[in-house]
């Protein structure tokens, strides 16, 4: 799935191929325990949601730091509200 929730793999007749990356993350034991508990057995899903949220937040911060442009500011605020980050 793409960030927008749409399929982004390769369609081959009846079968669909979705590419996934495996990433190893190092963190202290206490934080790892909290993460496991908070994810309720869905660790990857939890981390994907958190990373997507952070990427949106970073993009919005970059937009806000651009020179004043009323049209761009309105778009930035609209995006922030629709994403739930604002």
Structure characterization notes:
With 86 residues, this protein is mainly alpha-helical. It has helices spanning 29-39, 43-64, 70-83, and strands at residues 10-12, 15-17. Helices cover 55% and strands 7% of the residues. A two-stranded antiparallel sheet has the order 1-2. Helix 1 (29-39) crosses helix 2 (43-64) and helix 2 packs antiparallel against helix 3 (70-83). The model has no long low-confidence stretch (mean pLDDT 81).
Relevant terms:
3 helices; mainly alpha
Count of helical segments? 3
Mean pLDDT: 81
Order of secondary-structure elements: EEHHH
Count of folded domains: 1
Quick one: how many beta strands?
2
β-sheet strand percentage: 5-15%
In which order are the strands of the major sheet placed?
1-2
Gyration radius, rounded:
17 Å
Helix content: 40-55%
Low-confidence runs: none
Separation of termini? 25 Å
In short:
The protein is mostly helical and 86 residues long. It has helices at residues 29-39, 43-64, 70-83; strands at 10-12, 15-17. Strand 1 (10-12) and strand 2 (15-17) form a beta hairpin.
Write the layout of secondary structure elements.
Layout: E1 10-12, E2 15-17, H1 29-39, H2 43-64, H3 70-83
Antiparallel strand pairs: 1-2
Helix pairs in contact: 1-2, 2-3
């Amino acid at each position: 799935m793409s960030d927008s929730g749409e399929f982004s793999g390769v369609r081959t007749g009846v079968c669909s191929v979705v590419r996934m990356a495996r990433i190893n993350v190092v963190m202290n034991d206490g934080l790892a325990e909290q993460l496991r508990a908070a994810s309720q057995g869905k660790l990857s899903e939890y981390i994907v949601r958190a990373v997507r949220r952070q990427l949106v937040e970073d993009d919005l911060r970059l937009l806000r730091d651009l020179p004043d442009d009323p049209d761009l500011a309105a778009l930035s605020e609209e995006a922030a509200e629709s994403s739930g980050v604002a």
